[in-house]
Design brief:
Number of domains: 1
CATH class: Mainly Beta
Strand content: 25-35%
Strand order of the largest sheet: 3-4-5-12-7-10
Distance between the termini: 33 Å
Structural class: mainly beta
Radius of gyration: 16 Å
Helix content: under 10%
Low-confidence stretches: none
Number of helices: 2
CATH topology: Jelly Rolls
CATH architecture: Sandwich
Length: about 180
């Protein structure tokens, strides 16, 4: 397998072809959302990871990583810094730095920033061939701005109906506060 070529997308480096590569989180492409914080996914449309997704998300207190959902893929989340609240199967659980959440397929979940500062979360997930995802309407998740308006299996519908705009490919305003920006 050859080394992939990386190109600057305007908000960091992305692979533009299949292959192995090394990129620092500070140099990778970042996206920012007013609702869901910021993050990097290390892949691109041109070089999509086939078996395993991985990303780093940074959220402020009260910001969810995404909408409350369940899917047919196993995921894992490691809080690298800060505090969060895990919403899982209708329950709330506090998370702090170095807490790990194992999320088997079929588990309803979302992580929301908490505490007084930024939270940094590493997420990994399997990519099954026959992927299923559902966004249930949830009163608990609604209190955190993380619920679909109506239960749906269409991600675009879930986010659009909830009034969320697409993330912008740019670094967040708090970039200088992140550990890899030093």
């Amino acid at each position: 397998m050859p080394e992939a070529r990386l190109e600057d997308s305007g908000s960091g480096l992305v692979p533009v072809e299949e292959g192995w590569f090394v990129v620092n989180a500070a140099d990778a492409e970042w996206w920012t959302s007013p609702t869901f914080g910021s993050g990097c996914v290390f892949e691109s449309d041109a070089a999509k990871f086939q078996q395993l997704g991985i990303n780093i998300s940074v959220v402020q207190p009260g910001q969810p990583l995404c909408l409350y959902h369940e899917e047919s893929a196993q995921e894992g989340f490691l809080v690298l810094a800060g505090e969060c609240v895990l919403l899982v199967n209708g329950e709330e659980r506090p998370l702090r730095a170095w807490d790990f959440f194992h999320c088997p397929a079929g588990t309803e979940h979302v992580i929301v920033g908490a505490g007084d500062g930024l939270a940094i979360v590493l997420a990994v997930g399997a990519r099954p061939e026959d992927e299923h995802i559902s966004y249930p309407r949830s009163e608990l998740a609604e209190r955190y701005g993380a619920s679909a308006v109506e239960t749906t299996t269409d991600p675009q519908e879930a986010y659009t109906r909830a009034g969320h705009e697409r993330p912008r490919h740019e670094r967040p305003a708090y970039w200088d506060e992140l550990p890899w920006s030093e």
